[in-house]
Design goal:
Blueprint lengths: L12 H29 L11 H10 L5 H7 L5 H20 L6 H9 L5 H14 L2 H6 L9 H15 L4 H14 L3 H15 L5 H5 L4 E9 L21 E3 L5 E3 L1 E4 L7 E2 H4 L6 E11 L3 E8 L3 E6 L2 E6 L11 E7 L2 E11 L11 E7 L9 E4 L5 E2 L16
Antiparallel strand pairs: 1-4, 1-6, 2-3, 5-12, 6-11, 6-13, 7-10, 7-12, 8-9, 8-11, 13-14
């Protein structure tokens, strides 16, 4: 805020007063914008700071177009509740600007979309705003998103390229499909591209290897599982570095390790076949993955049962939830693979529900990069201790609809 100087009034007073008022307004506006953003970013789980969200949202939207880019930048995918408030504010600001016939800052939006450091969901919002204002932006930007870390942008880029391949000659179409298969991450797109390659070009691809599923395990169980305490009941296999030993399991019965492989294309291992049908039970599956060098990785498990994931004896993820569907990669933990052998242990718990749809006791697990793609330099030790590629599946079977 500019301070008035004695002796300059009245000649320069009006100018100085105007500058002073403009400066005060600018500072106040900036402060209001920051307070509004901070309040919305602080909205958390179980209603934390929720009482401040509505007035903060109103203040942020009231700030107009100047608040658009700061609101986008404030979106952090780590907290979905705060993100929802901020995305809603961005949409309201954009709608208000459109009603006032004021264009959005296209250059800033495009730069924001291209910057992979921004939250994927925020980049998606920015992309949609930009494409609505400039339809040519899609054709210009999507080819650059084939390997993007944003799942939504990658998916749309792959869909756009697939549409173009419909007009290509067979040789170009085959090469294009192989390229898109390597870039794909979503199960439906991977499956559709694999089917086209096999049926139209007689060029089968390895879906199991593409996803880097672990399809050879040492399993042991059942152990007792009490719903509500399943993940607090610890059993010896959690801390082991190799599949050795005989343990006291459920009902004091002795249980021992046995090797079990699955040829399911999506890596699903059925514990009712590997062990037996049990309720209120827990089982452990152990695999050894070798790495050529220190490698950050994600350990993703698909299951409708409660699950814990351990890497080299350290728990990296847990969730006690039963029979809510089998969504690919629903459970995910992160860790760092050390050079040489790494022990991955997955604990899968079954509850006592009697409904027919609650009888599945199975899981699929894989090791991948943050985009869901395979990591270089990894191998799985088979039952004989021989390294094989992750997901290597000499006899893949199609995952049947009634088995999902």
């Amino acid at each position: 805020m500019i301070r008035l100087v004695r002796g300059l009034w009245p000649a320069g007073g009006a100018v100085l007063l105007a500058l002073s008022m403009a400066g005060a307004w600018s500072v106040a506006a900036d402060n209001d914008l920051k307070l509004g953003l901070d309040a919305l970013k602080s909205v958390g789980r179980e209603g934390a700071n929720h009482e401040n969200a509505a007035p903060a949202w109103k203040a942020l939207v009231g700030a107009g177009g100047e608040a658009l880019m700061p609101a986008l930048a404030a979106i952090d995918d780590a907290d979905p509740r705060a993100g929802n408030w901020l995305r809603s504010a961005v949409s309201a600001i954009a709608e208000a600007e459109a009603r006032a016939s004021r264009p959005l800052p296209a250059g800033k939006l495009e730069a924001f979309v291209k910057d992979g450091k921004n939250a994927p969901s925020a980049r998606r919002v920015a992309f949609d705003l930009l494409a609505k204002q400039d339809p040519a932006a899609k054709d210009r930007l999507l080819p650059g998103f084939l390997h993007d870390k944003s799942p939504d942008l990658r998916r749309e880029a792959i869909a756009a390229e697939l549409a173009k391949l419909g007009k290509a000659d067979p040789a170009a179409a085959k090469a294009g499909l192989q390229k898109l298969f390597a870039a794909s991450r979503d199960e439906d797109q991977v499956g559709a591209i694999a089917k086209k390659l096999e049926e139209e070009h007689k060029s089968p691809v390895g879906v199991t290897e593409h996803y880097a599923f672990i399809n050879r395990w040492h399993v042991v169980g059942p152990f007792p599982n009490e719903q509500g305490k399943a993940l607090t009941l610890s059993h010896p296999p959690e801390a082991l570095t190799e599949p050795k030993g005989i343990f006291k399991g459920k009902g004091d019965a002795e249980v021992a390790w046995k090797h079990h492989a699955t040829d399911d294309k999506m890596g699903m291992l059925d514990l009712t076949r590997a062990i037996a049908v049990h309720k209120d039970a827990a089982a452990y599956a152990l695999a050894v993955v070798t790495a050529e060098k220190e490698t950050p990785a994600e350990f993703r498990v698909t299951t409708q049962n409660a699950v814990q994931i351990f890497l080299n004896g350290k728990k990296v993820f847990e969730r006690e939830e039963y029979h809510h569907g089998e969504v690919l990669d629903y459970n995910s933990g992160a860790g760092v693979l050390k050079p040489g052998p790494n022990v991955i242990v997955v604990k899968i718990c079954q509850n006592d529900q009697k409904e027919p749809w609650a009888q599945k006791w199975r899981f699929a697990a894989r090791v991948c990069d943050p985009t869901g793609g395979p990591l270089p330099g990894l191998a799985l030790l088979d039952a004989a201790g021989k390294p094989v590629p992750l997901g290597h599946n000499p006899n893949p079977t199609v995952r049947k609809e009634d088995d999902q």
